[in-house]
UniProtKB/TrEMBL annotation:
Stretches the record annotates as Disordered: 213-244
Stretches with biased composition (Basic and acidic residues): 231-244
Keyword Metal-binding applies: no
Main location per the UniProt record: membrane
GO molecular function: hydrolase activity
UniProt source species: Streptomyces himalayensis subsp. himalayensis
Sequence ranges assigned to domain Phosphatidic acid phosphatase type 2/haloperoxidase in this UniProt record: 71-182
Keywords: Cell membrane, Hydrolase, Membrane, Transmembrane, Transmembrane helix
Protein name as catalogued: Phosphatase PAP2 family protein
Pfam families: PAP2 (PF01569)
Length: 244
């Protein structure tokens, strides 16, 4: 199956020229920045976001089980990205869509060496899979991850290495993998993270001991006084429900 868009009258191609055309008027330093951000920077940002989410949630976990469930949801983010890219390999081989600069002249291509097929975008797939999986674990971090994924998709078109539909296809694939396989992943990962939580050697990866003792003491004190749980406890419970 050859290219999905070969005509300039195609909206996909028109949007490609509109977005990539912004690079013509941009200063050289901005194009170099977009090249780095689109190829490496945003993916690095996604990894740091996952680590930040892990560091935050391990401190706010109310119980060992809560901490283990949260970690399982966070670990699923990079795993979902990896699985989505593996699924994309046969898709790219079946569609065999050339890169846009192969079939269309006048594009400002910001990075060389892209000789593989274009549909579906690996970068868009990776970024959206991680963003959606993070949303399952924690809404705030998930929204930030999805925003980074959208920016990643824009950068790939701006760089002249993908059609807009390559990016949209990547978003769809990443979202489908992150959501549809999440129940199975959680069922497999949660027992592992629970075992880690009870380990003296790697338990720190799952939860912060001091935060758990503090949370337990807070709940006991509130139970004895008959007061409602504080906002931190309610937030932890809310995040636990999302991770489950």
């Amino acid at each position: 199956m050859a290219g999905l868009a070969t005509s300039g009258s195609n909206p996909d191609v028109s949007l490609l020229y509109d977005i990539n055309g912004l690079a013509d008027d941009a200063p050289g330093w901005f194009d170099r920045t977009m090249e780095f951000v689109g190829e490496y920077g945003l993916m690095l940002g996604m990894v740091l976001l996952v680590l930040w989410c892990w560091w935050t949630m391990r401190k706010r976990a109310a119980t060992l089980d809560d901490a283990a469930t949260s970690l399982a949801a966070i670990v699923w983010a990079p795993l979902a990205a990896g699985i989505a890219v593996l699924i994309n390999i046969p898709i790219r081989g079946f569609v065999e869509r050339p890169r846009p600069f192969v079939d269309h002249e006048g594009l400002e291509v910001l990075i060389d060496g892209k000789t593989d097929f274009s549909f579906v975008s690996d970068h868009a797939t990776l970024a959206m899979a991680m963003g959606v999986a993070l949303f399952v674990a924690n809404r705030k971090f998930g929204i930030a991850g999805i925003a980074l994924a959208v920016l990643e998709g824009f950068c790939r078109v701006y760089m002249g290495v993908h059609y807009p539909t390559d990016v949209i296809g990547g978003f769809a694939l990443g979202t489908a993998v992150a959501l549809l396989l999440s129940p199975v992943a959680m069922a497999l990962l949660t027992p592992v993270t629970k075992a880690m939580a009870r380990s003296g050697r790697v338990g720190w990866l799952v939860r912060e001991r001091g935060s758990l003792r503090e949370a337990a003491g807070t709940r006991e004190a509130q139970s004895e006084s008959g007061t409602e749980p504080g906002p931190d406890v309610r937030d932890a419970a809310s995040e636990r429900d999302l991770a489950a």
